[in-house]
Recover the amino acids of this structure.
């Protein structure tokens, strides 16, 4: 009896998830094999750049143990409110809604000491019980690796596609190859690979220094016959902007153009679908 009722609850939740996902044109999971390669930075900026172009975007942080989206967007006091039985996403702008586990913590520095089933439960709830509304893009930022969080997304969001972030050095690329194999195993198409921290242009001499090497992400994409979406250099401005809760869009360096190029490449790879009601641009 208990088992039946929990099965029924799961089925009811599945229905809610499916009815939300039917109203989302493109679902993108941003993954990396290795930690600290800039996955949250890229996920956040993809969401901001797309929403600035007028697309309706939802940004979901499923990095339960190390959520950083709220900080990168300057939403340090982010709280998720509820109306009835639904969470209300944070409206970063007219076109960008944000949900992060951070919004449920009493203290921002509280650690979450959760095992798999609890994490799976909260991710499903963020898909079932959030008042997202119709979206052109749902961008999901996952923790590094191939654990519970990306697996839950892959199993729950049936037409999700992956964008894999790497840095150019071999130790990161070895983990990217695992991410690619993971995507194959769970039948999640890879939209492309982005190489972050790809070279550093010295502000004094203007020369490019390949601190973590350069080109490894592009080569891995070619080796696996996957699209290469572009690269971002090591840019101290990215750190300063991220720490100040600002997007790459506020930078004056070439990094902004590189990010725009990545967004254009991504849009090229996607089948065009009718856009949700578009607004002029972000208001944040
Ligand atoms: N292109 C870049 N140039 C300079 N710094 C960068 C760049 N990209 C990201 N960073 C910085 O690197 C740090 C890690 O970035 P971020 O949090 O996005 O990585 P992550 O892969 O999501 O990390 P985690 O594994 O903890 O989830 C941040 O301080 C960020 O500002």
């Amino acid at each position: 009896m208990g088992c039946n009722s929990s099965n029924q609850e799961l089925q009811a939740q599945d229905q809610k998830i499916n009815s939300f996902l039917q109203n989302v044109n493109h679902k993108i999971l941003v993954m990396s094999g290795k930690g600290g390669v800039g996955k949250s930075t890229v996920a956040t900026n993809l969401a901001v750049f797309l929403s600035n172009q007028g697309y309706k975007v939802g940004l979901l942080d499923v990095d339960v143990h190390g959520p950083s989206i709220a900080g990168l967007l300057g939403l340090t006091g982010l709280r998720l409110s509820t109306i009835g039985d639904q969470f209300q996403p944070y409206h970063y702008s007219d076109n960008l809604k944000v949900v992060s586990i951070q919004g449920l913590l009493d203290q921002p520095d509280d650690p979450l000491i959760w095992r798999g089933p609890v994490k799976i439960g909260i991710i499903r709830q963020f898909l079932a019980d959030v008042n997202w509304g119709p979206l052109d893009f749902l961008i999901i930022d996952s923790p590094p690796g191939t654990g519970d969080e990306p697996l839950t997304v892959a199993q729950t969001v049936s037409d999700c596609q992956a964008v894999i972030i790497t840095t150019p050095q071999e130790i990161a690329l070895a983990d990217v190859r695992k991410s690619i194999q993971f995507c194959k195993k769970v039948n999640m198409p890879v939209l492309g690979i982005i190489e972050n921290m790809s070279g550093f242009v010295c502000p004094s001499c203007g020369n490019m220094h390949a601190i973590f090497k350069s080109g490894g992400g592009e080569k891995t994409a070619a080796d696996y016959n996957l699209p290469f979406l572009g690269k971002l250099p090591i840019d101290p401005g990215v750190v300063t902007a991220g720490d100040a809760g600002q997007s790459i869009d506020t930078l004056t360096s070439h990094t902004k153009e590189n990010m725009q190029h990545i967004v254009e490449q991504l849009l090229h790879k996607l089948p065009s679908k009718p856009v949700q009601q578009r607004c002029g641009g972000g208001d944040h």
